[in-house]
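@here heads up, posting the sequence + SMILES for the manganese (II) ion run so it's all in one place. Ping me if the SMILES looks off, I pulled it from an old spreadsheet.
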Amino acid sequence: MISLLHTADWQIGRVFSQFEPDDAAALFEARFKVVERLAGIAAERKVDAVLVAGDVFDLQTVSDKTIRRMFNAMQGFAGPWLLIPGNHDSALSESVWSRAERLGAIAPNVVCCLAPKPHTVAGKFVLLPAPLTQRHTYGDLTDWFAAAPDDAGLPRIGLAHGCVQGILSEDIDSANPIAAGRAGEARLDYLALGDWHGTRQIDERTWYAGTPETDRFRANESGQALLVSIAGAGALPEVETVRTGQFAWQQLEPRLSVLSDVDELVERLDRIDGNDVLQLRAHGSCDLGAHRKLGAALEAARARARALVWDGEALRLEPTEEDIQALHADGFVGEALQELRVQQADADAELARDALLTLARILDAQGSRTGAGA
Ligand SMILES: [Mn+2]
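bot reply: prediction finished. Complex structure tokens:
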């Protein structure tokens, strides 16, 4: 019986420049923390090894400090860690891996598999790694697995990074291809894959672990790792998913047309907490009162969320007659307001909406100062 913790796509050193600096820093930090959690799970479940299926680092140019911190984060599990490079951290002649070696950052229980040759791990299984030595390859690096000899009837475990052909990609020219059916053809007991950021089963012996900490919107089933148990050579693996991620990334595209739509969105915003990373792109239209309510809910949510990106470009502001009257805009300002309402339907819609919003905001603020607007 062997047990393995399969993970991939740590993308250590990833910079989240689409967010505000404090949020970006926390998300950068979360990628080290999840490695510590993985080490904790491996120790607690007493696995025989941890397999990391590539894209351990996000970039070849991460700092020396980042390299050291990554290996430090693995210290909670003293058993074997087996890593391969992926397309982001491929084993070029000068790479993040050769730098880690020079820094002396790699603990003796950590094996960075930079060449395609079998490793017998702790006398318990044979690991067949398919490291990427360049960012893109067009040959299948797992081709050699079938010819690798058996070792005293030990389970055969493959470790690779790329795209299973015909399943994740119909394109036969896609980079870093892995033949469908490789596990069966190469007599593997389990094939541990990386590159796809969500957990995904390909066949009864082949899985993508997904990234243990979500790093993008539209990464379904990410934020987990796989605990794999194999009774012995030839037995089918039992695979259990384990939750590892802290942050929940969600992308919402609410369409607002009636007041209850706004209320629903405000309720959703009120439930946001510090583990939410949210992107909101609103469509449709709302009146001034609803817009004010939404604005207040957004500001409050922004201070609670880990990150919140609001895109209101496609949201039209449609002040009602009451809105306009409540602004007490008459004469020239009143006419300008009416004109901007009309122009929102035209080519300069964006400009008109911004102008309308600005004007409404100014009038609103003046109104509340003089007590007229309430
Ligand atoms: Mn990749």
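MO: The two ends are 73 Å apart (CA to CA).
MO: One more: Residues 55, 86-88, 161, 195 surround manganese (II) ion (CB under 6 Å).
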